[in-house]
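Before a colleague's protein record goes any further, I have to sign it off. I want your independent view on whether this chain really folds as the tokens say. The record follows directly below this note.
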Amino acid sequence: MLNPLKLQEMLGQAKQMQEQIQQKLAATVIEASSGGGAVNVKMNGKKEVLKVTIDPAAVAGLSGSVPDVEMLEDLVAAAVNEAGRRADEIMKSNVQGLLGGLNLPPGIL
């Protein structure tokens, strides 16, 4: 049978670990680009987009007779998605580092 005091202590430790992870994620900045650097995205580890930079040359191409807005939209989406994937990898790495000694079942992280 589990000792209620031990369980409370474990829950307190888990809460501290969660707070540490959230602080690390908020402080982590990930950068990703697409279109050979035409679109750059900065995102934190919590997947909040901090900045989107679009090369003026990519916007200049929109002034033609048939502006390719869809291409620019695709470049922005690709850069955001790549930054999100990198944020996921960093989060998984941080969580594994903090919880590595717990021998959790596969698939939990």
Notes: The first strand starts at residue 29 and ends at 34. The chain has three helices and three strands.
